[in-house]
Specification:
This protein is α+β, with helices and mostly antiparallel strands and 510 residues long. It contains 22 helices and twelve strands. It is globular. The protein starts with 19 loop residues before the first helix and ends with a helix. The chain binds zinc ion (3 copies).
């Protein structure tokens, strides 16, 4: 018998076409380029260009910074090139990551599935005991003040220490339209007053780590993540052709594209005094002809501009050393968020939440922007190709003048890179997932196609290396299908980019 259908008519606003006024009325808990406050701020600063990020959009217009106490209206800042910057930072206690490292280091990670699950539960439980404050949004000035204070107190404060929002408030002086002034002496006082507590927590983490490694603090079963009741219902309905709920599920991403704005976020550059040698068009052509035809400098689109500094290829060509010209392009990855519910579940399992990347695109940076990444990595304890994002480069490189190497504030670069820990982690995990998925697909094909192994046996063999010991046996066929589909998706991407490069390569070499 057919299930009885209850017909509820539920009009969903069309967020793509709704007026700004309607959006504002519908979503008082959010903010965006549509809000009357944002518009008033643009008018007040006499500009139209806006850089409004997802953090800013996720809290209401009346939000105020938990550290300096300023309202959004005071936080919006005009950049030197006339863009209104509306951004917030996510500030968290780095001590938590430090504690996690200690807990995992000492733990001789068990390999048997049930033992690993229990060991992991112990790590999860204990790491919360090390954090000094809950993560929260703070204004960019307060987050930067935390970084600046730590840099000024380098060698004094513990390298993984973070000042809490309340502590930051005690050592900053608010300056309208400019970054906070940081009083290093006051910051040091704060550190002295909490030093005992911090070191005690670290010692406690060591103690806990030894106990966890001994098999203590374990918990049976699996943690169920609480979800608002509507979430799982909508997810199921969204896959059901009779009761499609897809439009409802898409609301968050449609709202976000209505709310955010990215007109460029950059500050200006100190003026260089050294005269700039501008190469001639003929020099540019001679230089280009002398390059390896396979190098992106030669075959990149004629309209290319560097995503970090906005300069054209010609503008990036500069003198280096004695009358020699140099110019190169370097590959750089830009990642996109995974937003498929199933994929997120298969990817993250117990460790839900946080940033998960599902794809990447290749862009090309000029040599100067690439050098910023290289130089920043020299300041980091854990260097990474992904230490800076394009947005960061745009801030750091600013309005780079043509034909010269821009001057970059490496301290600022280091601060931005240190705040990118989630991004760096997510990128690393993405590449691991990518190669795992491709390996699963290859191995599985080899076993089932060429060696006559049945699906069940092949599944056990290929999933062994994926190491998802948190999953129940009955979930493994689902994981296998997911990994095979991912493997095929990545293989197709790699094939497409190989043939792109081939076409581009021959095109440029003509
Ligand atoms: Zn603040
Ligand atoms: Zn921070
Ligand atoms: Zn550049």
């Amino acid at each position: 018998m057919e299930p009885m259908k209850l017909s509820i008519s539920f009009p969903i606003p069309d967020l793509a076409t709704a007026s700004d006024h309607e959006i504002e009325g519908l979503f008082p808990s959010f903010d965006g380029r549509w809000s009357s406050q944002t518009k008033a701020l643009l008018a007040q600063h006499g500009v139209e260009r806006l850089d409004l990020d997802g953090n800013w959009a996720s809290v209401p217009p009346m939000w105020r910074c938990g550290s300096c106490g300023r309202y959004k209206a005071e936080l919006a800042r005009l950049s030197d090139v006339g863009v209104l910057i509306c951004r917030l930072d996510w500030h968290h206690d780095h001590l938590r990551d430090h504690g996690k490292k200690i807990l995992k280091r000492k733990g001789a990670r068990p390999s048997e599935p049930e033992a690993l699950r229990r060991w992991f539960s112990a790590v999860e439980t204990c790491k919360d005991l090390i954090e000094r404050f809950h993560p929260s949004f703070v204004c960019v000035d307060c987050n930067a003040a935390d970084g600046e204070a730590k840099r000024k107190l380098k060698g004094i404060v513990h390298p993984d220490f973070s000042f809490s929002p309340a502590e930051i408030a005690t050592f900053i002086t608010i300056q309208p339209g400019r970054p906070h002034k940081v009083d290093a002496d006051k910051a040091e006082e704060i550190w002295k007053s909490v030093e005992d507590d911090v070191l005690d927590r670290i010692a406690f983490a060591e103690l806990l780590a030894a106990r966890v490694a001994d098999g203590r603090h374990q918990r049976q079963g699996r943690k169920l993540w609480p979800e608002p009741p509507l979430g799982p219902l909508l997810r199921d309905l969204s896959r059901n052709p009779t009761y499609p709920a897809i439009p409802l599920l898409q609301l968050p991403s449609i709202l976000s594209s209505r709310s955010l704005k990215n007109d460029g976020f950059r500050s200006s550059l100190k003026v260089r005094t050294k005269p700039v040698r501008v190469p001639s068009q003929a020099e540019f052509e001679t230089f280009t002809a002398a390059q390896d035809p396979k190098s992106p400098w030669v075959w990149v689109d004629a309209g290319w501009t560097c995503p970090g500094c906005d300069r054209s290829r010609f503008e990036c060509l500069r003198e280096s050393g004695k009358n020699k010209l140099s110019g190169r392009l370097h590959q750089f990855y830009v990642y996109s968020d995974e937003d498929d519910y199933d994929a997120l579940r298969w990817r993250n399992g117990w460790n839900e939440g946080g940033v998960t990347y599902g794809g990447h695109a290749v862009v090309f940076l000029c040599q100067d922007c690439r050098l910023v990444v290289t130089d920043t990595n020299k300041t980091l304890t854990a260097p990474s190709e992904d230490c800076l994002r394009i947005e960061d480069l745009r801030v750091l490189v600013g309005d780079a003048a043509p034909h010269t190497r821009p001057q970059v504030d490496l301290e600022a670069a280091q601060a931005l890179a240190e705040d990118n820990f989630e991004h760096v982690d997510a990128a690393r995990i993405y590449w691991e997932h990518r190669s795992a998925a491709r390996a699963v697909l290859n191995h599985y094909t080899e076993l089932t196609k060429w060696r006559g192994v049945d699906r069940e046996t092949a599944m056990w063999i290929v999933l062994e290396k994926v190491g998802r010991l948190d999953l129940e046996d009955r979930e493994l066929p689902g994981l296998l299908d997911f990994m095979l589909a991912e493997g095929a998706r990545f293989a197709a991407q790699d094939e497409a980019s190989r043939s792109d490069r081939r076409t581009a390569g021959t095109g440029g070499a003509q």
